[in-house]
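Propose amino acids for all 123 sites.
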């Protein structure tokens, strides 16, 4: 089992930045690719970003490319999502997730989910 706990959400203004963290405990964190998803009210959960177990390769949804950066620190069992130039349409609950590969994550074939952290961006 892997437990994932997100933190770092909050209420910000358009153009601001936030950094989300996802702390993992349980089985070996470094065995998993990690991803971030988000879900806005009334919408389906969508893929945001993913990172390989090594941290070398990263992938982003087109809507966040160039503004968001995913990273991980395997020594700290933590994955991060740095969000810059936030827009009101980024408002959502953000979830981290673990999967066997980035490809699996992008197919929503996930082994573990966190409980989510709310990000609200005002205009």
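Proposal:
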């Amino acid at each position: 089992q892997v437990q994932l706990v997100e933190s770092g959400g909050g209420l910000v203004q358009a153009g601001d930045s936030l950094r989300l963290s996802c702390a993992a405990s349980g089985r070996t964190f470094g065995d998993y690719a990690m991803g971030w998803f988000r879900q806005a009210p009334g919408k389906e959960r969508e893929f945001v970003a993913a990172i390989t177990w090594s941290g070398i390769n990263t992938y982003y949804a087109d809507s966040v490319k160039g503004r968001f950066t995913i990273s991980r620190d395997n020594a700290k069992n933590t994955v991060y999502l740095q969000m810059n130039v936030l827009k009101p349409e980024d408002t959502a609950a953000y979830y981290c997730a673990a999967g066997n590969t980035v490809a699996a994550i992008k197919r929503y074939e996930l082994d573990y989910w966190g409980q989510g952290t709310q990000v609200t961006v005002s205009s």
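The chain has one helix and eleven strands. The mean pLDDT is 95.
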